[in-house]
Specification:
Radius of gyration of chain B: 28 Å
Largest interface: A-B, 27 and 28 residues
Distance between the termini of chain A: 31 Å
Helix content of chain B: 10-25%
Distance between the termini of chain B: 62 Å
Number of helices of chain B: 7
Order of helices and strands of chain A: EHEEEEHHH
Strand content of chain B: 25-35%
Largest sheet of chain A: 5 strands, mixed
Number of strands of chain B: 21
Helix content of chain A: 40-55%
Strand content of chain A: 15-25%
Radius of gyration of chain A: 15 Å
Oligomer: heterodimer
Largest sheet of chain B: 5 strands, mixed
Chain lengths: 135, 342
């Protein structure tokens, strides 16, 4: 099983200019976490499915919104859209840090759906990434 | 506070208490003369006795000019105190007749009687699925409740006003009709032939992209008469389009156009599939979809031209063709620029 993060911006003019290396680092670390613990799966019949996040944003949001899962049989994936508040991120003093905090909130919520025991690992990854890219 | 509401009244019938239409006090839009519902929300049979003179109540046929059903009540044994031909217990101010079998009392200020409720939006023709709101002259109020147009029926029914309105322009809880007065409406009695070409072009766009309002649907005949019927997938189909880009790790992969009426959560549905495919092919990359320009009420042909302009600007600037456009580029170049070399 692989973990992906892609950006699918649904509204004209609303997107984040976040360096790709930051997102790639998040993907790499989450994939490593899943590799270290092979027990994670997305439920019955979904053992070989990938888990994906589509980052999106909209104006006037106050917190992260997680969509219901989008399941693709063709590409064998379960995807969640994570809606990140636009103004709060782009107006913050540390855009990368605020963005990552919202992104990890979304990631934690997704993993909480399946199992809660990754919480401490995800917090560790979050602190590591933020200290590397946004301190 | 009431929101602006676009209401078009297509029929107004004013009745005597037993349902006979008062001569000279009715309004009927020509485009809706095939619509057969009236008093008590029942269907009339215009062929035999003329419009509004005979109603089908389900179990029996009712003649509002006589104030009687034409056949005896199948439940006459339960009501020995009534004539078997009676209508609504001979108290049409207090009661309505449900189905030709028995009457039911209506209560002032309640919303409990089916003939006085109109459900909007679940009928393919955009007309109320249950014959629309029956309004009393006094103490009446129409409140929008989600997709429902509710009317509070006071005792009896004196008049029926049939509304076609644009529900997206008003919200739950808005009062649109109160004590005989329409609250803050924009009423249009416009005949379809009075619409300008530009107005109808916008209507045609909404009809083709699936966002038509109820009022738009009533203008369909006029639109077809003036512009001809366009296939949704043809180059002449009008719709809303976006020109988008897909990048892989920040490098442009494709410029494309998409129909905004075919979206999931605001994103053209096929984009999700495209992103899934690309991330499988590029597992260590970040795929990004972003809208560059939106165009409203344009033809598919115009959208293709816009897409070509954006692509061509990019090709000229960076002197290479994005990978995702390479397959169709030569054909498009020939089409848009008539390049004989391709």
């Amino acid at each position: 099983m692989r973990f992906y993060i892609s950006s699918v911006y649904s509204e004209l003019g609303y997107f984040f200019e976040i360096e790709n290396n930051i997102t790639l680092d998040v993907i790499k670390n989450i994939n490593q976490m899943l590799k270290d613990d092979c027990n994670f799966n997305l439920g019955i019949d979904k053992e070989n499915y990938d888990l994906g996040i589509f980052i999106d944003t909209k104006p006037n949001l106050l917190n992260v919104i997680l969509s219901k899962p989008m399941i693709s049989r063709k590409y064998k994936s379960v995807d969640y859209k994570v809606l990140i508040p636009y103004e709060i991120v782009v107006n913050s003093d540390n855009v990368n840090k605020t963005f990552l905090e919202f992104l990890f909130t979304g990631i934690q919520r997704i993993f909480d759906i399946y199992t809660g025991h990754y919480n401490s690992n995800i917090i560790k990854i979050k602190e590591k990434i933020i200290s590397k890219w946004a301190s | 506070m009431a929101q602006p509401l676009n209401i078009r009244t297509f029929r107004t019938l004013v009745y005597y208490p037993f349902g006979m239409v008062m001569p000279g006090r009715s309004y009927q839009a020509g485009s809706e003369d095939g619509y057969k519902f009236g008093f008590n929300g029942k269907e009339f049979d215009p062929e035999t006795y003329g419009a509004g003179n005979i109603y089908d109540y389900g179990f029996r046929i009712y003649n509002p000019r006589l104030g009687k059903f034409l056949t005896i009540d199948p439940l006459f044994g339960n009501y020995p105190w009534f004539s078997p031909y009676h209508f609504a217990g001979n108290s049409p101010i207090l009661n309505i007749d449900l189905d030709g079998k028995e009457n039911e009392a209506t209560q002032p200020g309640t919303q409990n009687s089916d003939p006085n409720e109109a459900f909007i939006g679940d009928n393919p023709l955009g007309r109320p699925s249950i014959p629309p709101a029956a309004e009393t002259v006094a103490e009446s109020k129409i409140i929008l409740d989600g997709a429902k147009l509710l009317s509070t029926a006071s005792k009896g029914v004196f008049a029926t006003i049939f509304f076609i309105f644009t529900p997206v322009e008003c919200g739950k809880g808005d009062v649109i009709y109160n004590n005989g007065t329409l609250v803050n409406p924009i009423i249009t009695y416009k005949d379809p032939s009075e619409y300008t070409d530009d107005e109808l072009k916008a209507v045609r766009g909404r009809l083709l992209n699936g966002t038509a309002t109820l009022q738009d649907r009533l203008l369909m005949d006029e639109v077809n008469k003036r512009f001809g019927v366009a296939n949704k997938n043809s180059n002449d189909a009008i719709g809303d389009f976006t020109i988008y880009q897909i990048t892989i790790n920040g490098s442009l992969y494709k410029i494309g156009k998409a129909d905004l009426s075919r979206t999931t959560d605001g994103v053209p549905t096929r984009i999700y599939q495209q992103v899934r495919k690309l991330r499988l092919e590029n597992p260590d990359a970040v795929i990004e979809y972003r809208r560059l320009f939106d165009y409203y009420n344009i033809t598919t042909r115009e959208a293709k031209e816009h897409e070509w302009d954006v692509l061509q600007d990019w090709v000229t600037t960076y002197n290479r063709i994005p990978v995702g456009n390479q397959r169709s580029y030569s054909k498009d170049k020939q089409h848009f620029e008539g390049d004989p070399a391709n």
